[in-house]
Amino acid sequence: MTSTLLADAPGVAVTQAPGAAERARHLYFSLYDDPAAIPGEAQSFLAEQIAAASALPADLPPTLVGMPAWIEERTDAVGAQYRDYLAARKAGAPRRYFHCRAHALYFLKGVAPTKLVDGAWLYGLLRQWDKPACHPLIKTYLEELGEGVPDKNHVTIYRKLLATHGCEGWEELDDSHFLQGAIQLALGHHAERFLPEVIGYNLGYEQLPLHLLITSYELNELGIDPYYFTLHVTVDNAASGHARKAVQALADLMPRVGDREAFYRRVLDGYRLNELGASTTSVIAGFDLQAELVDILAAKSKVGKNMHSDYCRVAGRSVNDWLLDPARIPDFLAALEQAGWIKRGEDVEHSRFWRLVHGERAEMFGVFNAYEQQVLRDWITTAPDGETAAGPRVLTHRARRRTLDTLGQDAGRGAAFPERGLIRRHRSEETGNELRLLEQQVASASGKQEAMELLAGLMSPEVHHTAVGLMATRLYTRLFDA
Ligand SMILES: [Fe+2]
Questions:
Q1: Which domains does the chain have, with CATH numbers?
Q2: Ligand 1 center to residue 1 CA distance, Å?
Q3: Which of 68, 89, 100, 478 has a Cα at 20 to 30 A from 249?
């Protein structure tokens, strides 16, 4: 699943209740830890978010009849905008989203709370396996989970991507980053009560947005595997993918008898929920290279303030003294520059400070992870006037074209990135026992209903990417298709 419809458009003001983002963070982790513990809180949070989004425009057609034309129009418009983007890039325009590699990694980390619950809003449909009208949504959820194949499970793919680049510390992000994820988890755990909103949310999330295409292109250009993103270009496609299934689900689940208009109004409410909280474009816009480096050093100073000998002095002050107060970090960086320890706008190897942190024999080896080193590297190679020293990380034009050629097919799997079969099928004895026990329980179930319920319980957003969750997904998929 990808992202929101209006996210490419300028932001629309939303009035949130005081403390809404803080509650979203709390709810996000609570639902992840114990989904059953706070049903009332999750439902009142959703009601509050629906009210907050009610003033936002929803560009869906007034009735179902107009839906295929609406999707086609949107897809054409995104295609035309992407063609314009490519033409501009070919003519020499700079990257639109990511000024440097650290910026792209910052984005991966910033959207992690949402991506790590990818598909969560559909979880509650699993127990409706015997209702054909729910099948398009269940099928979409199963595809999000890679039908239980580890290296096709979207959450597993994203976790791997974060780990590859040292971007795991997303739990400390600002509260607004957790709003979309909290909405998705709350919808997933209360799908029966919020079915029209789930359908509408899904309809919005599953349309192909321009930012997905540009993000894929620029990540690849920066030598970052875009597979998670290119995968969504293909699975969300309007012809046969999740976008099509989203419309089918709406058509099948609209009541035949009863208030269809009221139902559709609630679908629109769910659709608008996509617009709340941090989005792809707002996260990208929030990046400031200097501020990010200062934050990283300030976090390190909590430990580092006692770790240096008194002989380590910069501008007459010991390093421990510089690190005592995080507010001094910008001055510390300036002092390192003035003392010649850092030479901005030049190759990093010219900077003594870089050589202290980078390389296996570096004195501070292991202190900065991959992401933090990238931020430091980009800050050093970028001169204060914005000019950048040539870095080794940007791919050639030829490599970029290869991704474009394959985008929409099995994109991102070109020779530019290593094979992705790195997700280990690690089975400890304990895990093996658990899997055997699950097989036994399914085999001894009194019927399909009991088996499906048992399996669905292990396919929740917080469990489906574990060994037992993946196996439950494989078994559920087999029974679902039987
Ligand atoms: Fe996905």
A1: 20-285 (1.20.910), 289-381 (no CATH), 429-481 (no CATH)
A2: 3
A3: 478
